[in-house]
Structure formats: structure tokens, C-alpha cells
Amino acid sequence: MFEILANSGASLGERFRGLVNWLCAPEKFVSLATVGFILALVAYRKWTKPKVILTVTILFSIFYFGSMTDHNFFKIITKPDNVPITMLIFFTGFVTWLAFRQAAINDERTERGEPLLEAGSDDKVLVWPDLVYTELICLVLCTVFLIVWAIILKAPLEPPANPSVIPNPSKAPWYFLGLQELLVYFDPWIAGVLLPGLIIFGLVALPFIDKNPRGNGYYTLKERPFVISVYMFGWVIMWIVLIIVGTFLRGPNWNFFGPYEYWDSHRPVALLNINVSDVFWIVMPSKWNLPWKPGLPNQAALGGLVPAYIIREAPGLVLLGFYFFVMPVLLAKTAFKKIFSQLGMIRYVVFWILMSWMLLVPIKMVLRWLFNLKYFLAITEWFFNV
Amino acid sequence: MPVTTDTLWNTKRLNAIFAITALVAALSTAWMLWADYDRPWRHTQLRYFDIMAALSHFDFLGFKTPESKERHKQLQDAVSAADADLSKKTDEEKELLKARNLLGGKLAAANMSFGDLNAQIQVTEFNYNEYKTLHGAENEKTVAARKLLDEQRAQLTKFRTTKDTLEDEQRALSRKMRAFYAKRDDARKNLAAFEKGMDEAARRDKLYGAKGGELFGLVPVRDIFNAPLADFLAPRGTPGREEIKQVVLPDIRADFNFAQSYITDRCTTCHVGIDNPNLTREMFAEKLQTALRVVNEERVARGEKPLEANATPAADAKPGDAAVPTPAFADMNDDQKDKFLTGLTNTLNTYLKSTGRAPIEYGHPLLAHPNLDLYVSPDSPHPINKMGCTVCHEGNGQETDFVLAAHTPHSEEQAHEWGKKYYVKHGGVPEINFHTAQEYWERPMLLKQNTSASCAKCHTQTTDLEQREGERLPDADAIVRGEDLYITLGCINCHASEGLNDSRQVGPDLTHVASKLTEGFIQKWVNFPKDYRPSTRMPHPFRQENNLPWSKSFEDPDPILRTNTEIEAISHYLLTFSKPYTPVELPTGIQGDPKHGEELFTSIGCLACHANLEAKNPNDSAGRSFGECWIIADLVHDGASADDAAKRYKDMTHNQRVEYAVVHLTTERRDRLQRVADAEKAAAEAAGRDPDPKKQYVPGALTRFAPELGGLGTKLNPDAGNAEQATAARRWLYDWLREPRHYSSYTKMPRMFRDNYYWQERDPAGKLKKNDQDMLDVAEYLLSLRHDSFKPEPFPNDPAHEAEVVRLVRILLAGQNTDSVVAAIISDKKMDPADEFGLLTDRVVKTVAPSYGTGDAGVKAVGEIIAKQDLAGKQKLFLGSKMILHYGCYACHSIPGFEGASRPGTELSTWGRKLLAQLDFAFFDEGFAEDREKDKKLWDHLYPEGSAEFEQLIRASGGKNEHVDVSHTHASFAHYKLANPRIWDRDKLKKPYEKLKMPNFFLNEDEVHSLVTYLLSRQAPLVRPQVQIAYEATPTGKLARGRHLVAELNCIGCHSIENNSANVQQYYFKPDPASGQILFDVTNAPPNLYGEGAKIQFSWLYGFLNNVEMLRPWLKIRMPSFHLTHEQTTTLVEYFVGAAQSQSQSLAERLATVHGWESKVNSTPTWRKSWFVDLSVNYVADWLARYALRQKLVMPFDLDTKSASNGEEASKAIATGFQKVVTGSEFLQRLYNVEYPFAGMPHVQADDARYDHGKKLLLELKCLACHVAGDPFAEGTTADIKAPNFALAHRRLRPDWVKQWLLNPQWIQPGTNMPQLFADGNSAFKDFPEADRDKAQAEFGQTSGDQIQLLIDFLFDLGSRNATVVQPPAPAAPEGAKPAEKPRSAEDEFEDQGGGAKPAAEPKDDKKPATEGKKDEPKSGGDDFQP
Q: pTM of the entire structure?
């Protein structure tokens, strides 16, 4: 980082762009986003104040739209496909702020013993005109919005589809960019089937797992810090941030590029990923002089009962076994003691299944970025890789 | 609980909000409709309709001029005059009418009775048949019926006779009546035609109207049916209706990758006038000028001031003062024309506005296609409704938006200009720009210079595009030349390309190179060939952008040391493995004479392929060299004074002179200026003025077909004082001249020195001696050509080189081997002591051994050679072999050890479809534009600027350092890659053997464009086979193959076969003593071969080409003997036949049109009714006229209409000319209509009496004054042989051809010396005094046919009888009987300045038996040293 800032030959603009590019390396970007997210949770009463958020918005807008002077950034955000992303950033920001703002006010009020903002309002309205009429107006406005959008941003020109040549970068529709990002870290059956399935299953199961009535019908963070944090982590970091990463930082050959970097399809990237089994059987003994000889086991054990790959993948099996089966027990005894007692056995198991898979995503991503980790478990013989 | 009536929202406010949102919705819907409606193409079409409206209006006005009114009145008067005439002849008319009525009545009656009876006969016949069947033939009923039938039939015959007579009478009467009324009918018809035109003009004027036509005089109609949402009001195609126009093209395919489909081109939506002949610049100018005249006449008539054009780019072009464009307009360039037209349009717009009409704006999308004869129009070969637009131009045909249609700007400036004009922007942001369009649409429009790439889609063999029906196709130049260059430059040797498979290696054979060249020369040459020979085609792999010191980096610390080491290794390899070679011994006792050698060099035809700027120009009176003559003339043409030019020439070094010639004196430039000169000459002749001397300049052409030979002495004999070396060089050269294939197994160089050239020497030993002498002379001359400023010395011994060899070998090996193995290989260690060779030696042996023999023999031979090398030498050999492989030397040269190696370059068969993303533009990519801005010196030019290192490269590129303007297209990539093959390595950090290695050819701009065009054409054709040229079914295929071969053998360097210009002809010009003009020397130049296929017996050619015999002893230039395979000769024969056939075919098509026209119009041929003025067959007249002029069937003044003041006179003036055109064309059409392969069967043997009879006629006609018949040394043979020997006729010529030749030699061979013995097909004795004529005709036959047959019978018998005939000394020949001195026709006088000669038969070697030529059979000694 200091190198970039100290680069004497470069202009201020270049140094700034260098810094941003550097910060936008995935591990830093996602880590920063997470740190920001945690800060936002902790300091929600501070930043949601109108003056603070207004200043932040203005500064961000200057940064965001000022970046349009950069040719490469400009190309990304003016692509008709990507215009919704700009909307998404500001809109998500707005609704998040709104919720946190309301929560902050409510939490302060409860602390002071005042009634909630939502208290006293009648939750029954007339179908006509209060519901249908407003819906009609919204409908008309939406139509106008879509028409204007269609006129101004035309569908982009693309070459005829060629099954043997995919566009480079070939990106999913913007709303699936988060899922597409998962494909980098997981096999298709996890990234494309299991995880999306779990998201839907999880959303359906949520009301059955969490039967706590607090927070129903009013905004609060203080009363539900854990639930909101977990949900918001899944939504903002695991979904929205990954969409932004997919849009701005993923270029040709699905390589990472800084937002101001030219998408050069000829730029090489070193991708030498290794499995946990490689780490255990090869790297560790040769680096640290551990007592076993470097080399992947290729002999079945116990007269063929335990195939070679099981022995080979034993470290991964142990790790995952610990994560999926031992961790919940340990947690139930310690940190999640209260939760476990509230949920009971079955709901706790469901909760852990959802929770563990959600957390596995960032864990795997960070391990990939930092240690080039490919798979915990690589039973290619069965196409079973995690 | 009471129902609450309180609403959450204020309903009134909701109403208001709803009203506002509804309004916004309505507005946005309206916006949507408008956005959908307001497309850019509508504006273009509107402009088009305005132009159409204005043109219709002007047409209409044209009918209102006094002149037109006068014409109208004349026509009306003619009608009344005719009526008046008739009224004077009322009696006659009455009588005619009466007769007609009478006859009509009679005929009706006759018809009636005939019809009645005929009907009755049917009944009787039926009855008779029925009775016969029912009752039998003898029954009385049957008999009666039969009788009745017979009677009725007899009666019917009578009736028919009556009827027929009456009908004949009626026809006669009708003819009479037609003649009687002819004048009136004609007048009426003319009037009707005129009035129809007038009405039509009025109708069209009204249709478009002042504002596009009006409805009830209220609303302009066009505005109604063109309103948004109103497009259903008028049907498609209504004039003035704005609509998307498209052509659907089932034969042209679009590749959707998983399927092919038809193409839809909507280009005509904007280019709406593309097929409108009125919208070419020329026609439009004519129309506007006429309009201006008409408008002004009207204004003057009204007493107003005439309008004046307010912008005239050329001073002498004043619009309005002539009805036709002034000649200056034709001479303007497109820019000037546009300016001129803008001026004219502006002027007329003031008028249009004043009459409430829309002003017009003529400009680019509305121009008609500039070449409607060839493209777009329905009767052209490429009609738009069949071919469309994108098939040639590429781009996205379905789009109607300028940018999305993938228009390609030709430069940054244009891209910028277009961007401003055409980008659809939102908030200043373009929706799409050219860069994105190019990136997404893989096939953006081709630039003009590359469009011919698309020709190859249908014309897959492209050589058929060289000429079409004898005419150049300038549009196809790039693709034809591109393919030619791809082969001749040797691109094909490295890069395979489908369709070009059997190409020879273009570089010399290096198998025996040690016996020819020294180490020093090889090293110096490889280092930078242009140092020695600036005209060389050898590409330069070294001293390039990425291996000059400039490019050094830690990966490649000293590029010069590296490349020098590589060169040393290459030369070491070549010399070490060069195979032994012994040239034949020099003849003893004779010495070469360089002076005579020079004479031979400049006269026998070496110059057709080789140039030598320092050779003395025999045609120059001052005795200067070719280089001096050419370069000084060119400098003077450029504007230098004669003294200055001479000084500049003197100051040039040899290399600078050659460089100058390479840039300025190209064959292409000569051809181009030759065409300019010819056109100017014809124009001047037609106009009766002197041609403009500036346009008469035709530069010399430095041919680069074979090496330029200045300095050859330095190459073969570098150490001037070294006698041993000099002898070796002499011996090598002598051997080479004797038989080039002795040294090189595939050289194209033919044998120029054949002893049968000296057929006049009686003594065979003398012939051989003379031949030897000649070869020695030429060898001596060539060895005397030195420029010793070029020092062919090897690199000095430098220990750094040895270390560098080891370093490079290490780099090469490091990829696949560990360090210890690399070390083992480098030190040539044996892995196992039992091994025969060390590791390094083993590798070299494996490469080279197969070349030295199969199996162990090769290994042993190579092992012995290598054993002589020390370790450093072995390392060098290894490096050399790797370098030859790396740089691909073996692709063009035959090098031992690389016989079976595959092509080093990428295959380019589908390069045109290669994905853009796969082309690496490196730092020239768009993404680095900003970075490139920072260092213009580095990035802005083909070679980096401001460094002395690049001077040599820039100079070798013709002195120019092109500005680089890379766009993201295939064409751009190929362009810069070809112009500087290492350009994409600029500023890149690469290891030595990862660097780009394509050598630099130093191509000029034309060559680059041509090659780019060829490369772009390399893709799947995407057209259906039925629109592709059927090569096999037509002569086209024979032509295409033949053209390839005659180009490869350089037949066209000497002979004009199909109107090509032959390089050697530039040496055959001499001043005409009579006029002082410099004219082509027909007599001494190599004969042209037009229609050769109709002339020769095909079997003869097989023997002739490989072992030439003397045909025309008076020629200094020689036909060399080639090494042709049977297939090649067949190709040539088929080519000659194909050329004749296709000529005959195209003539036949044209003549059929003419005859068809004539048979349709069989009434009196007034001038209006001559076919050559009929517009509908105008193009045929044009074509035939051009053909006839080229063939000299007529002279320009025959078809000149300049002196005529009106159409009628003009038509009369050229009527005779066109008669000649047709007769001549018919003659040639018959002549060239040869059959193949069964043409030219030998003549039947004549008996002795007939033979003697023919001989007598021959002597009577004095043929032997110029010809020889049999032994040329027989007593009494003419001393001045001007024509071939008759003895060869029987096996060389086709009798049919001889017949035609005797009838009209001038038509077959313009400019020949051969007199026309049978003028206009008359008897040869027509002009004799009557008594002599009768006597002669009684003896030799009355008609020309009889006489010619007699001659032919004799001529074709002479050879097989092996007889000799001489003209007996004439005691007193009758004065008038000398046909050779007969007055000559006009066409003879014109051309035949020097007196050319065309053979009817030829002399031959005296001793040789006249056998039918068998292929490859040596005719005489001299082939004994054939390898």
C-alpha cells in the first residue's frame, strides 16, 4: 500500500486510483466490507443520524460518480446491463439506513421509556381508496419508469451466439452474480444446487426456527442483535457485496481487476490451488519436518476395506466432520447454550445446518484468497468435492 | 361498530396525484412512440424524396423551355404536315380504302365458304368412318359418303386457293397502305412519345408536389401517410413512403454458429438511391446543370436575373453554360466533385425555396453505387436483389442505425467526425461507439481498399478476377495481387492456406551452398539482406525492432551479440552440411568477353526476369545505363531540372539507386502510367490534338521477379584479387547458365543457351563453341559487376560469441531439461560409453541424417562430417539447426536436414474468421490509449522515432515511417503486423525465443493492403455453391490455373497473352523515323500470344517448351527452355485454349445481342434505328468498340463522333466504323472458337500433282521473299528472313487458323508484316491486269477459298516431305504481281510502323528430321549434363 502511495512518478489521481485498486483486491474488499458491516451494527445509532448519513452519501456519491472520469470505471457503469447495480447500491443503502434509523430511534425511545414510533397507529385501512388506489398509482409510475428505462437504455448489441465461444467475461444476469461468484469456490453441485436450495429452504424455515415475537411490527436492533446480524450478514455481505464484486471487480477470464484497471484479456494470473490433502500430506511434512513422508497415500488400507482416497482425504474429513458435527455440540455447550435451550434439539440441528453452510462460504473464500485452498475434501473419484 | 369512513389518504390529493401520474404515463407513452418513430433513416429517406421531387420538377420544367415547346410544336407540325400531305392525295387514299373494303368483303366471303365447307367435311368424314365400320367398305352408304367426301375436298382446295390469293392481295395492300400512311404514323408516334414523357413528368411532379403531393389541395399527402402510427395508410412501395427497405438473400448465408440462415440486408433503407443511375455524381451533375439552364431560361424569359452557381472548385468548370458536364468535372477528384455539386445544389435551392419546395441536400448515403455496371443494378453481374450488400462490404446488414450497422471509419479523424454525427447519446454518453461495435460485431464493414476480400467468396480461385473479357478489373486488384504476393513472397511457405497447396519454395536451394558462397557473404547477407541487394524479396529476421540494442532487457541483455551468434551458427550449419557439388569444367581455349556478355544480357531476354540498373541501355543514344536513364527521367518528371536530376543521380550510391528504383520504378506504377498514357493518346487522337506530354510519361520498371544482378561479382567472388576464387565463381556461373537445375533442384530459371539457336551455323561443333562462348561472355560480364563497398566478411573471432552460443543453447534446452542434463548435452557427454555419439552430436545427427541417406548410411555420413568439429563447432551446429528451425529458414530454402519439416507458421486458412479476442494488440490495445499518449515518440509511428537505430528499418521501408492508428479490427491488426512484424512486441519484456519472429518484408503500402485483403478473404465463404463461380464447367477454370502458371514461370514477362503488360516490352521502344514518336517495336519484341490456342497444334507445344527450337531467326530475344512437367504443359495448352474460347464466347454473346436487335428492327435503318445508338444495347456497343480498338480492328477516328454536331451526323459518322467492328468481331469469334482436345487434326497428305500445283502458286505469290521453306541454307533462299519457316507449319499450326490468317492477318495480329493476299476475301489476283487475272484464276482456282486450300495443301505437305523450296531467280516478274507491295489498307498504315512479322510457319534446324514433336525428347545435343 505504501508503495502505491509513495510511487513518486505518479500523479495524485494515479496514486488514488492505485490505492483504490489495491483496496479492491477481493480479500481486502470483502474484509473491509465485513468490518464496515460490523461497525455499522455496533455504531448504528451514530451513523444513522441524518447529518452523518447525508455526509457519507455525498462523499460516496462524489467518489462513485467522480470515478466516472476514469475510462475503465466509466465503461463498467455505463454498460446498460450494469445500470441496475448503481440503483441497487443506492437503494439498498437507503432501505438499510431507513431500517437502522428506525431501529435506532425505537431503541432510544424504549431506553427512555417512551412509546415506539409504530405504537398507536391503526393497522387497518380501507381497500378503496387507500389500498387499490395507491397500488394503481404505483403501477402507473412503475410503467412509466420501465418505459423511460427502455427508451434510454437499449438492449446492448451482442454478436450472434456461438456455442463454442463464450463471451469474455461471461457474466450471469446481475442478480445472479453472487451465485456465480460462489462457483469460483465450490463445485457446481454445491454452488448451483445446494446453496441456492438452502437459501430458499432457510428463508422458508426461518419463522419456524425463530419464534421470538420481539421485533414484530416495529424496528429494533437492540432486542434482536444476533438474528438481525446473521440475517444482514447473509443478505448484505453474501449477496449484495458479491454482486458488486461480480460487477466491478470480475473481468475477462473471471480474473480480479481493480475498478480502474483496464480489462486486459491477455493478463495472466497465477492460480495454483491446492487441496487440504496436499497441505497435509505434502506441504506440512516437507516444510516442518513432520514424521510422515511427503506424498499422497495411494494404497488402500485394511485389506481394501478403506480405499486409498479415504485415507488421502482423511484430514479434510476430520476437518469437515469437526465443523459440521463436533462444532455444534461444542457451541451448544458454550456460546450457543442459550440458543440451544430455546430451540430444542431438532430446531437447533436445522439452525446449524443453515448456519454452517452460510459460514462455510466466507471461510472458503478467505482460505482461497489467502492460501489458494481448492478443496477441503477432494474425492474426485466420486465427483465429491467440498 | 360503525364503518369508518375516514380514509388513510386524502382522496382529493390522491386524485390529483393520479391525474399527474396518468399524464406522465401518457407523455412517456408518446415519447416511446416518437422514439420508435424518429429513426435516423427517416431523415435520410426524406432527403432522398426531396431530391426525387426536385428532379421530377426539373424534368417537368424541361418540358416547358422554349426549346421543348419548339420541339413539341415541330412534332405537332409534322403531324399536321403529314395530314396535309395526305389530304392532297385524297383520291389515292379513297382508292386504297375502296380497294381495302372490296378486298375485305371478298375475303370475308371466301373465308365463310371455306369455313362452312370445312365444317361439312368434318361431318362427312365422321359419317364415312362410321359407315365403313358399321356396314363395310362396299356398302352403298359408305361409297356415297366417300364420293361426297372426295367432292367436298376437291371443292375445299379451290376455296383455299381463292382465300390464299385474296390474303396475299390483302397483305400487299396493307404494305401499300402502311407506306402511304408511314409519314403520318411516324409523326404521330413521335408526338405521342414526346407527350407521354411530358405527361409523365407532370404526373411525377404532381405526385411529389411542392410538399410531397397534396390531398384536396389542403394537406400534403406524404406528411399524412408518413405520420407516426399512420404507416398502414399507404401500401409498401408507394412513392414518398418512408419505410424500411430490405433485400432477402437466400443464397447469401449468415453464420449463426449453430445454424446457417439467409441474409437480410437493410442497407438500402438509408442508401436508398444506391441503384438510381441519376444519382451517380456524374449523372447528378448533368441533371443539375440542365436544371440550372432550364431555370435560368425561365427567369430570363420573365426578365429576372439568372442564378449563378456560388461555388466552383475548378476555375474552368462553369456550371450552367453547358448541358453536359464540362470535361473538367470528369477530371475532378471526389472531393472537388462534391464541392462542385454542393455549389450547384445551393444555387438551385434558392430557386426551390422560392417556389415553396423543399431544398435538396445531396450527399454520401444518397450517392448511387459508383460502379453500377458491375454491381447493384439488375443487369449487372452482381445484382443487389441476388447478392445484397454485406456479402461484399460486411457489416451488420440488419441494422438501420449508422453505428450499429458496423460502419468502419478509416481513420481516427473520421471516427471522431462520425462519432459527433452519428452516436446516439443520452446525457452525453454514447449508447454505443465504433469501438464497441467493432468488438461485438466480428465482421465490421471492410474499408474500401480491402473490400475485394469478399470477391473470394464466390471467385474462390481469384485469378479469374485478373481480367474479365480482356479488361482489367481494378476493383479486384487487391485480392488478386494479395494472393499473388502470398505465393511469390513465400508467405505460403510458412503459413498454409487452403486452396494453395502445391507451392514451390521461393528461396534458392541451399543444398550445395558452400560451393557458391563464402561464409562472409552468408553472414552479411543473413544479417541484413538489403545491405547487399536493396531490391531483394528476402525478408529480414534480424536487426528488427525487437532484436536491436534498443530492446535489451535482463531477459535479453545484448540482442546484437545474440543475433550475431545466431547468424554465425546458421551459416556454420549451412556450410558444414552443404553437400558436395561439382560444376562442369570450363571449356578450354576460350575466354569470356564481358562487353559481348553485356550485349547478350540486354538483348537475349535476361531482362524479363532480372534487372541490372548498371547495364548499358542499348536504346540510349548517350550510352547511359538503365538506372541512369530511368532515375533521371523519373526525377525530371517529378519536377527536377535535367542538370539537377543528373547530379542527384550521380550523388547516389549504388544501393540508393536501387532503393530509389524499388520505391518509384515499380511494375505497378509503370502499368498504371502506361494506362494513363494510352488513354491520353487515344483521347488526343480522337480529339485531333497532341497528347499532353506530362501524361505520356511511362517510367521504367525494375522487375523483382528474379534478383537484380548488380554486384553479382562481389557475391560470387568477394576477394577481388583471388584468382582461385574467381575461377571457381566463373565455373559455377557457367554451369548455372548451362543448366540451372544442375545446381538447384527446383529453380524456375530456364535454360537460355541452347545450341539450336545457332541454326545458321552449318557446323555442329561451331554451334556448340559459339554457345560456350556466349555463356562465358555472360558469366564474365556478370562477374565484372561489383560493388565492393559491400564487404562480405565474416564476424571477427570473438570469444564472447562462444560463450553466447553456450548461453543460447542453455536457454533452448532449459525448458525441457534439468540443469545437469543441460550441462551434459552442452559438453556433448556420452550417457553411456558405448554410445556412438555424445548427447549434442546425437541431436544434430538425428536432424540431418535422413538427408544424407536412409538408415545407418545417413548416420554414418553425418557422423563423419561432425567428427571434424570441435566442441564449440558442435555447439554451433546445434544452435544453427535450432535457429533454422526457429526462424523458419527451411520453409523457403531447401536446407539439408529439414526436408520433411512442417511449415513453421500458423495456418491462415480461416484467419478472416479468427476471433478478434485472439489477436493480441499488446500495448496498442484500446485500453492503453492513455498510456500511449504519454510517449508519442515511442508509440505513434511504425518504428519508434528519434533514435538512429531505426534509420535502417525506415529506409528499407521506403523512407517513410507510417503513423500508427490501430483500430480494433482484423484489417488493422494484419496491416501493422505486415508493415512491421515485430510491432506487437514494443515495450514488452520477453525472453529471446518468445519474441515475435516473423521476418520483415519491408512491404510498401499497396502490398500491405493487398496482403491484408487476401488474409481477410480467408474464411468460410458463406454463400451457396450456386452463386460461386463454376470453374470446372467453363473455360474460367482453365484460365485461372493457367494464369497462375504463366505468372509463376513469368511467361508474361515477355509475352502478352491476355492483354497483360509484359515487363520486357519496355525495352522494345524505338523512335519512329517518320514521326519522331517513340513507338513500340513490334518486329523485335517477343511475339504476343493472343488467340494462341486457336493457332497451334497442341501436341507441338509439349516438345517445344522443354526444348525450344528456333522460330524467328531475326529476333535477338530468345525463348528459353523450361523444365515443365506434363501436367504443367497441359495446363498451358488448356489455358491458351480457354483464353481463345472465352474470347470467342464473350464475342458471341455480344454479337447475338446485335443480331437479335437487327432482326427485330428490320425496317429501314435510319439513324435512330442503328443498334449502336440504341440505349438498350448501348453497353454492348461500348464493349465491342473497346474490344475492336484494342484488337485494332478499327482506329479511334472510326468511332469518333466529336466532329458531328448532332446525333444523326454522329450516327452516320460511325456507321462504317461499327460495320467494321461487327465484321471483325465475327471473324475473330469464329477464329477463336476452337475445340479442345480434338482440335487441329493434321492435314491429309496431298498427291504430287497437287503439291507441285501449290508450289507454283506459292512462287507466284512471292511468299519466299520473306519466308523460308525447308533448308535455310539452300541456294536462293532469301537473305533477309523476316518470317518463319514453312517447314514447321504441318506440325505447329492448325490449318483452320492458317486459312483465316491468309484471309486477314491484320485482324489476327495487328501490325504484322504479312500482307493481306486475299483482300476482303477476293481472289489473290483481283488487281492483276484482266488477262493475267483470268489466266491465273483459271490455273489456281477462281475464288480465294480454292486458292487458299491449294496453298494449305502445299504448306502442310512441305514439312512432311522434308523438302526445300526456293524462289527461282525472276527474269522479269510482272510489275503488278507483287502482292507484298500491294497498297495497304488504312489500318495497316496506322499501326505497322516498324513492320512486325507473325509467323505462318518457321525455319528450323537444318539437320533435324521433321518429326512430330514428342514431349521432352531432346532435339539435339546439349542435354548431356542434365542432372
A: 0.84
